[in-house]
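Ticket #4471: structure output looks truncated?

Reporter: J.K.
Steps to reproduce: submitted the chain below (99 residues) through the standard prediction queue, then opened the result file.
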Amino acid sequence: MPDRIKEGDTILIELLSRLGRSTKDLIELVELFEKKKVYLISLKESINTSTSTGKMLFTVISALAQFEWDVIAEQTKEELKSARVRGRMVESQRLMRRG
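Returned output as attached by the reporter:
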């Protein structure tokens, strides 16, 4: 997408977390957008980076999204570990044993 945007474009997304995989990714994209004078509007979070408030909200919500991704990853690792301790096989282990 970054190679297809041009000055004055506005990128409209439904959910901020769909734009990047980490806070770092999101911030780098928005910095690129700023250089190209492109604005970002996120519908669900009501963020519009053409305003000072929108830029601040983007930063805060990006950090919260990163926190959510990290918590989900930690929970998944703990659940897999717990399943192994209980002797349950995880689907990916079954698939690897078949191959």
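Triage note (M.O.): checked the attachment and the full token line is present. The two ends are 37 Å apart (CA to CA).
Status: closed, working as intended.
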